[in-house]
Amino acid sequence: MHLILDLDSEAPIYQQIRDRVVEAIAEGRLAAGASLPSTRQLAVDLAINFHTVNKAYDLLRREGIIRISRKSGAVVRPDAGQGPAEPQAVADWERRARTLLAEAVVRGVPREELVDRIRVALDGFGVGRGDT
Amino acid sequence: MHLILDLDSEAPIYQQIRDRVVEAIAEGRLAAGASLPSTRQLAVDLAINFHTVNKAYDLLRREGIIRISRKSGAVVRPDAGQGPAEPQAVADWERRARTLLAEAVVRGVPREELVDRIRVALDGFGVGRGDT
Amino acid sequence: MHLILDLDSEAPIYQQIRDRVVEAIAEGRLAAGASLPSTRQLAVDLAINFHTVNKAYDLLRREGIIRISRKSGAVVRPDAGQGPAEPQAVADWERRARTLLAEAVVRGVPREELVDRIRVALDGFGVGRGDT
Amino acid sequence: MHLILDLDSEAPIYQQIRDRVVEAIAEGRLAAGASLPSTRQLAVDLAINFHTVNKAYDLLRREGIIRISRKSGAVVRPDAGQGPAEPQAVADWERRARTLLAEAVVRGVPREELVDRIRVALDGFGVGRGDT
DNA sequence: GTGGTCTAGACCACT
DNA sequence: GTGGTCTAGACCACT
Prior knowledge:
Four copies of one chain form a homotetramer. Chain A is mainly alpha-helical. Chain A is 53% helix and 6% strand.
């Protein structure tokens, strides 16, 4: 799994790892059931502290996106994106989406362009397309 | 201007203020040219320190969303959302949107529902609709 | 005298007035001995408080750039830009110039471009050209 | 890094710190990639509050001149002064330069002396000389 | 009356 | 150990 960090960003590294993994799953680069690199391996690859990778994986586990076991390490949950989403998580997501959309509107991005950009992004995601 | 904070949220208070103001502008509750409460006043209303409000207003100013002067306090920029958006800001926005969309996809929100929710949110925004 | 203010700027209005007057003198739009508008007139033209204009004029007077008398109001000093500059003022000016140049260099403006831009600016100034 | 403040100056302390750091980078005393003192350390050295240093560093970060991380503290961006300067920033810079030059002209500094002083200042800057 | 700056100290987040 | 956030209060600058 290739994964690019932006050390200049104000976003914490563990959050960036979490975000990139989520994107990789959405894009289909990380299939359901696939293994993530070991925390130590990824830490070496990214030249960061292994506790930071640990924190990212733990976050993904708590979000129900991956499973972690001593035997098989971290794997993408086979049912990720299958069952209905948790109402609580969806409500929270919707609030964040609202803020993000409001920002674009206030910045003067035309609605058509906005919807287009969202469509393009969604088209890049192979998971959950309904034809799976 | 009514504005609700979540003190339990991990999002800093100043960021929440910024987000709520942006939403209020997008919704049309805060019109272009309208005054925001003074930093001290809003601090009293929200039962927080005025420096925190200051930081939020300063952030909005640097984003080009409000104008601040010692004379007239903070006002929504009359040209907010008028001119074309800055490419840099739009690129940054798109990255954040991608991450957010990926999360929804991975959580199993169907695409139709996703697009619907976005449409509903956009319909709640009065600004920049083109027919104004 | 036409004079444009930027109310969005963080620079105080009195400082902007002072700066614009200095530029007008350098450009030759305000000749040595010429009268400035009365403080009340300028305040009306700029839609600002007349105390603010007063403060700007007082600053120009203290800098030795204009003379103020009850009889003839504010006039550009006839000897502005004639005699040798005050060493103290020049030293102070040089420090500010150093900071400004350092900023351009750090931002990556090539030296040739830097010198060119300065030359162009100086060419727009009619006063003190030596051929007067 | 040695750095001298003028507590009597009307320029805010955080701005002075920012200006001195920019000069140190232009002079080559602070190389690309070099570390700045920690906010707390510099505050002790300058006998000021660490929040003031924080504000200066935050300003430098927003200007894209330094990078800040909790791990390695503040470092001069390796690419500072490398890529082409932002047009917006250059336009703003040019306006300030115009005002500064006008002031010198009005004060009676001869053009030759003016250009000489600028050349001398630029010669003191090791960064971006093209022959490096 | 408004925002801006500075000091001071507490506590937290990240690595 | 580093920076980030928040509170608190004083004083100043601008209009």
